[in-house]
Amino acid sequence: MLVILSLSMIVADVRYSVFSPMRPYLxxxxxxxxxxxxxxxxxxxxxxxxxxSREGLVLENxxxxxxxxxxxxxxxxxxxxHAENVRLRELLEASQRVDEKIVMAEVIGFDQNAYSHxxxxxxxxxxxxxxxxxxxxxTGVLGQVVEVSAYSSRVLxxxxxxxxxxxxxxxxxxxxxxxxxxxxxxxxxMSVPRSVDIKKGDILTTSGLDKRxxxxxPVGVVRSVTYVQGKAYADVDVVPLAQLGRSRHIMLIDKxxxxxx
Length: 261
Hints:
Number of helices: 2
Order of helices and strands: HHEEEEEEEEEEEE
Radius of gyration: 42 Å
Helix content: 25-40%
Number of strands: 12
């Protein structure tokens, strides 16, 4: 019966437009039902698109983070190579100012503790290294060789508390002894009378009196001069010019055998 009634209504509407005046009102009644029926589907579609978009953003972010990390690593490597090239150019320029024959060496180890400051270098007696050999970097006196093996040597830095270097003031010619203090940033000029003309900024060079370090090589710069009441000598702090804890490439001064001590 319902089927016949439905077919009759469809035919009447198609042929005679019986329900045309009522269609807008029927649409208003049907619209909320359509919204309710379609809402879950739309929500599922939106959630799927949102999750897919978020997952894509997360993956893209991870990819960008990895790329940034790689680029930073490459930049650090380039900065390191640039700094090393600068140091090598400085060392080359310094080697051209050295009158004696030199042997280039590379630092392969650094031994620092409360009692000793030493470097391990890649040159031994097979390359002509010997105990007592002076060692320089691009900016000043670094120390001297104290132990030698076939393919490596140990260098005692001028900052070591057991190391002493005869020096003179470049400005006045005053001669004294520069002693290590155990600190890589501080040396001490010993036994400087109060009457000596010495001031902050004065350059100290090797005097050559020990017959080990050739004369004229820069060692340090005076940082402060302090006069203490009742003391006959001034307290003179000196900053080493060599890059004691940072030099990678250094020079061994190859003195003639007759001049070695």
